[in-house]
Design a protein that fits this description.
Shape: globular
CATH superfamily: L-arginine/glycine Amidinotransferase, Chain A
Bound molecules: arginine
Number of helices: 9
Distance between the termini: 34 Å
Helix content: 25-40%
Radius of gyration: 17 Å
Strand content: 15-25%
Largest sheet: 3 strands, mixed
Number of strands: 15
CATH architecture: 5-stranded Propeller
Length: 285
Amino acid sequence: MRPQFLMTDPSEFDVSYVINPWMRPDAWAGHRKAEAVAASAALRRALEAAGGEVTMVPAEPGLPDLVFPANAAVVLDGKALMARFRCPERRGEEAPFRAAFERLAARGLISEIVELPAGLTHEGAGDGLWDETRQLFWTGHGPRSSREAGDVIARTFGRTVVALELATPQFYHLDTCFRPLSGGEVLYYPPAFSAEALARIEAHVAPAQRIVATEEDAAAFCVNAVCLGRSVIMARAPAALRQRLEARGYRVVEVDLDPFILSGGAAFCMTLRLDLVSQPTLARA
Ligand code: ARG
């Protein structure tokens, strides 16, 4: 089976409220819908060209950020831990995302749907990144997700969680400032993290595997990338970042995602990988 991704029909995308510092309703002003539709289609084509297969969630009037399905759930081994949003503006997305997961379950793409315990917030893969190399979850907390949600992820999936505190309003989801790549490198933007979080990153990622994003890379939303094999699909990239990744053997695929950057999101959060599986842990005697 090809790598499976969820995306959302962008026809109701809008920038009508401000819940992160990148959101620019004035710059968006409702007139770039066609550009958003084209940008989403280009991202879908890039995923398919890299070998992926995409399932679309239908658009819902009044839910402009439904285009960011990374925030729908944390998914591993067929299990989906559904998100609970911190901002009231996005809570309406929980029901349509749940319905989408029930349809995925009916198709056999998901085997179990789990709800987050009451009182906690967690915004899905935006703050819960599976690291295939290290076989662990990196979780982000602070602006959107509760710290304790990391413990729920550890229990739900039976995997190690490394919790990282996000220290700025600009990098409000972990996926805006941290991306493990298939070869074991981690592309990340250090100023987004607390000192303790940086120490945790450095404890798990050897110096040769650290690819430090510049402020320009992070502001271009290039850390918010999809890595599929040796392909790294991202928003329009500074040339130096492209060269650094190519020097490590990656193929950088750029997609113009400017309309979505006006909402504070780009390639990674416009998608959700559905078929990640962990390696079986060895049974201990
Ligand atoms: N406007 C959305 C929000 O602020 C953008 C979400 C982008 N998602 C992400 N995982 N970075 O919630």
